Amino acid sequence: MKMAWGITGAGDKMKETFEAMKALKEAHGDDLEVEVFLSKAGEQVVKQYRIKEDLGEDIGKVWAEKNANSPFLAGRLQLGEFGLLLIAPATSNTVAKLAHGIADTMLTNAAIQGMKTLIPTYIMPVDYREGTTVTKLPSGRELELRVRREDAENVARLEAMEGITPFENVEEIREIIKRHL
Questions:
Q1: In sequence order, which residues have a C-beta less than 8 Å from that of residue 68 and are 6 or more positions away?
Q2: Model confidence over 32-64: pLDDT tens digits?
């Protein structure tokens, strides 16, 4: 199966998501082909977490956003080139845009267009439920953050939408991939 993995500017769960995808690539070999699509902020985050080069070496071809249609991920999804779109981790900004139908970035445009052509679309919002969460900074230091009610409500909007499946934990990625292999 060939899949598109979108990375936004969320640092929370970034290392864990990378490690999960690396393990899946190792476990499935040529049965799992992954192309990585970095949003503009996602490109900054993978540099900060020092995994940009590892993405190309361990996962697959890496593309960086120039604008909402470049690289043209939306078109490739619509043409059925990919079996699924995974956006993980996803910022509250990306989630809010998708929850309100705004397609002004490469990943939000791809998700909305992919949903229109019934491409399975999965998203792992870092601000999944209201309350507090602890994230690890690139330095390894922990930072406690508050997840706002509004951000959790946007996740609930996505849960109510047809064609997109939000999920909360990195561990769920393995099952998602397994269902589509």
A1: 103, 104, 105, 106, 108, 109
A2: 999 999 999 999 999 999 999 999 999 999 999
Give the model confidence (pLDDT) of 68-95 as tens digits.
888 899 999 999 999 999 999 999 999 9
Q: 112-117 — which CB contacts under 8 Å span 24+ positions? A: 112/74, 113/74, 113/75, 113/77, 113/78, 114/74, 114/77, 114/78, 114/85, 114/163, 115/161, 115/162, 115/163, 115/164, 116/78, 116/163, 117/77, 117/78, 117/80
Sign of CA dihedral 176, 180, 5, 20: positive
Task: Tell which CATH architecture fits domain 2-180.
Answer: 3-Layer(aba) Sandwich (3.40)
pTM, two decimal places:
0.95
Exposed/middle/buried for 108, CB within 10 Å: 0-12, 13-18, 19+? buried
Distance CA 111, CA 85 (A): 7
For residue 14, give the H/E element and its range: helix 14-28
**What is the residue extent of each domain of the chain?**
2-180
Q: How far apart are CA 11 and CA 16, in angstroms?
A: 10
Q: Which two tokens stand for residue 179?
A: 């269902």
